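We both want to read C-alpha cells more fluently, so let's practise on a single case. Once you have written the record down, we can walk along the chain together.
***
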Amino acid sequence: MRLRTQVLDLSRPRVMGILNCTPDSFSDGGRFAARDAAVAHAEQMLAEGAGIIDVGGESTRPGAQDVSVAEEIRRVVPVIEAIVKRFGCIVSVDTVKPEVMHAACRVGAEMINDIAALRVPGALEAAAQTGAGVCIMHMQGEPRTMQDAPHYVDVVEEVQTFLSERVAACVAAGIGRDRLCVDPGFGFGKRLVHNLRLLSALPVLGDLGVPVLVGVSRKSMLGELTGEPVGQRLAAGLAAAVMAVERGALIVRTHDVRATCDALRVVMEVSGFGSNNKP
C-alpha cells in the first residue's frame, strides 16, 4: 500500500497500534492525553511489534461529543511530530476533518484513517492533496447516535456497496487505488448480529481489490458475546483478529499489540508466510 512517502508492505498481515490522545475514549480515555505519555506508549507498541501507530484526538464511541478543529490539532499534531522524529515509523491520523488531515501530514503522518470515509466536505480533496494512504470505513449514522437503531436488509451487501462507491469516489478525486484500504466498521452503527455476519463474510470485501483493515479490539460486540467488561476482552479480541486475518484482513487495529502480534505470528506460520516473519 502506497503511503505519503513510504510503502507499507502487506505481503503479511500488519498490526496497527491504537493511540488515543483523548480524555474520553471508551477503553483508555485520558491515559495518553499528555504528549510524553503518548510518545512512551507509541514506543512500547513499536517494541511489541506494531507496524503502524494510529493517533486519534476525538473519541468515536457511541454518544461521543464533537471536538473542535483547533482542539483536535492541539491534541494530535505534537504527538505525531514527536513520534515521527523519534522513531521514523509509519503514523496514521484517525480523523474526519480536512484541516486535521493537512496538519497531521505536514508533521509526518503517512496515512489517514477516516471513519466517515472522506464524506466530510473538503476531506476528499484534502486526502488527495496530502498524498497520504487512506483507510475508508463504513458507518451507519454518526457516532453520537449510531447505535440507537441500526438496521440493514443485507448488511454484507450494503457495506460492500458503500465501500465500493467510496473507493470509486476516491479514485475519481485523484487518490490512487494503491493508496486505499477499507474497514467494514465493526461496532459503528451495527448490532451484534451485523458484526458477526460481517466477520463471517469478510472475504467478500476482498473483492473490492484493496486491502481490508479490521478493528474489533475491546469493542462492545465482544462484551455482548462474553459478558466481560472492556478490560477483560483480550481473549475474545484475539479470536476475532485471528478469524479476520484467516478471512483476508491484512491490517489489524488493536489496543493489545503484543498479544495480537503473537496470535498473528501463529496464523502466519500455519498459513505459510514463513518463519521469522513479524506482523
